[in-house]
């Protein structure tokens, strides 16, 4: 039976575009039960599911320049550029509290995407309890070279973008024939082939499958973009992309750029609002459609 998926790409602070899209969905009353997110996409997703409008924007806009969030000092002290205690504990527990009860009460669930260092393959994990599974969310956003691997249930995990940057195929495989895809790169973007893989081979010499995944990432990414465009043409997907010309770095600190990107996401979703609602209605109709009659013999 057809259902609908919400597919969220990562991209660090480029995820402010996604935050804008999700706040529009909240305002429009659009609730999608299946959400799959990578890195910043996963972090944005949980506040969408807990119905905490504006939370993602507030955190990233307010603390993007805070050394407790992202800094070389964090890396020197802990081995990770991102302040893991600050971002994954201090903020959700005290500073901008996360509503765990609302998340658990929701019908929606996040599937977080990580990459397994040993296999180089995607690691998908349904998040039922954000507090108990915070390490999976953290792993999804732990970038290679600037983050420590995260151990989860015998797996060593890093950023999901290495193996599956835009997990549309996974959403389809899970039964979602209709999808709303939120990208963090503009129309026409294609990932360039990387040059030498010497750095990754040195840094991850114990994990050759992970090195191979990093090397093939541009090809996999571009093939997935082709799939996104094909699903759009066939009417099975709506894809939202940032406007061309909005140059925002992964660790952007310019607050004007961050606000502009958030507003761009909100406006992009609003412009496609009717198309999104049609897709939602199509998914709802498919859910309640009676089963096809069995062929008599």
N-C termini distance: 24 Å
The CATH superfamily is known as Cytosolic phospholipase A2 catalytic domain
Q: What is the CATH architecture annotation? A: 3-Layer(aba) Sandwich
**Poorly predicted parts:** 290-297
- Alpha-beta content class: alpha/beta
Give the topology string: H per helix, E per strand: EHEHHHHHEEHEEHEHHEHH
- Number of E strands: 8
Number of helices: 12
State which percent range the strand residues make up: 5-15%
CATH top level is Alpha Beta
For the biggest sheet, the summary is: 8 strands, mixed
For the record, the count of structural domains works out to 1
Spatial extent as radius of gyration: 19 Å
Mean pLDDT over the full residue set: 93
Short overview:
This protein has 297 residues and is α/β, with parallel strands linked by helices. It has helices at 16-27, 40-49, 55-63, 72-78, 84-95, 100-105, 134-140, 168-173, 198-203, 208-233, 255-271, 273-288; strands at residues 4-8, 34-38, 109-116, 122-127, 150-152, 155-159, 178-182, 237-240.
Structural overview:
With 297 residues, the chain is α/β, with parallel strands linked by helices. The chain has a single domain (4-288), classed as Cytosolic phospholipase A2 catalytic domain (3-Layer(aba) Sandwich). The protein is 45% helix and 14% strand. It has helices at residues 16-27, 40-49, 55-63, 72-78, 84-95, 100-105, 134-140, 168-173, 198-203, 208-233, 255-271, 273-288, and strands spanning 4-8, 34-38, 109-116, 122-127, 150-152, 155-159, 178-182, 237-240. Strands 1, 2, 3, 4, 5, 6, 7 and 8 form an eight-stranded mixed β-sheet that branches. Helix 1 (16-27) links the parallel strand 1 and strand 2 (34-38). The longest helix has 26 residues, at 208-233. The radius of gyration is 19 Å and the shape is globular. Residues 290-297 have low confidence and may be disordered.
